[in-house]
Amino acid sequence: MIMLFGGTTEGRQAAGLLDRLGVHYLYSTKAASTGFVMTHGQSRSGPLNDMTMVALLAERKIRLVIDAAHPFAIGLHRTIARASGTLGLPVIRFERDYRIDPDLLDPARVRYAGSFAAAIALLTIMNPRLVLASTGVQTIEMLRPYWNSREMMVRILDTERSYGIARSAGFPPERLLRMTPSGSQDEEEATIRTFGIDCLLCKENGTSGFLPVKLAAARSCGTAVVIVRRPDLPAMFRTLTSTVALQQAVMEARGEQ
């Protein structure tokens, strides 16, 4: 059996491939999410630590681990590396597309930060009137040093779970933008212009996270952008970026050519 960590577009793509290949797998996410049809997969949800992940991998007789989780799920990536290393299991990182048109990365407007702390320091120097953070509800606590004293809106998914997390963190409800992004540049531009956003804070989350769309909208509106770079992956991971390569790796793991 294969262990597939998902909760992302890439997770569903990998699941679809495994279903087409007739390979049994366990699809794992941190939180329960809207289900999708799996013909050869089983689903589970809930956080795992080193001990519980080792136990799960051993109990299910996992032979291959595929990490298709969010690139910023740092804790999960590290837990996968330690647990898989303990059991001597290979790990494939099914990675998303991070390519961006260089024309969208005008250094006069777009800057990178190596961490959220670095992003806060950079924003403090830039001193924009109003920042829109589209970095997800889980980053609200990390951004507290900024929004405690400066103007910031945070876009979160329009779900009660996300709203509850934001309110538990004490973030001002009037500064929450509850919406599920469609990936439309027109929608992004309308949001920037409606609220008078003069700086976007984004993650380096690739095409799946609509980063190129956000950058195009920001360019059209003349808006500054700060991008938090994605964290490095564990060295033991074998990174693949296409379903063709993933299929070949799965077949190799099953002893097929």
CATH architecture of the largest domain: 3-Layer(aba) Sandwich
Global geometry = elongated
What's the pLDDT, averaged over the residues? 94
Number of helices: 9
CATH topology of the largest domain, by name, is: Rossmann fold
- What's the main sheet like? 6 strands, parallel
Strand-pairing-aware structural class: alpha/beta
Span of the ends, CA to CA: 18 Å
The CATH homology group name of the largest domain: Nitrogenase molybdenum iron protein domain
The CATH top-level class label of the largest domain: Alpha Beta
Low-pLDDT stretches are none
Radius of gyration: 20 Å
Strand segment count: 12
- Share in helix: 25-40%
Fill in the keyword field for this structure:
2 domains, Rossmann fold, 257 residues, 6-stranded parallel β-sheet, alpha/beta
Q: Could you explain the architecture of this structure?
A:
With about 260 residues, this protein is of the alpha/beta class. It has 2 domains: about 1-95 and about 235-255, 3-Layer(aba) Sandwich (Rossmann fold); about 100-230, Nitrogenase molybdenum iron protein domain (Rossmann fold). It has 9 helices and 12 strands. The strands form 2 sheets. It has a 6-stranded parallel beta sheet with strand order 3-2-1-4-5-12, sandwiched between helices. The protein has a 6-stranded parallel beta sheet with strand order 6-11-10-7-8-9, with helices on both faces. The radius of gyration is 20 Å and the shape is elongated.
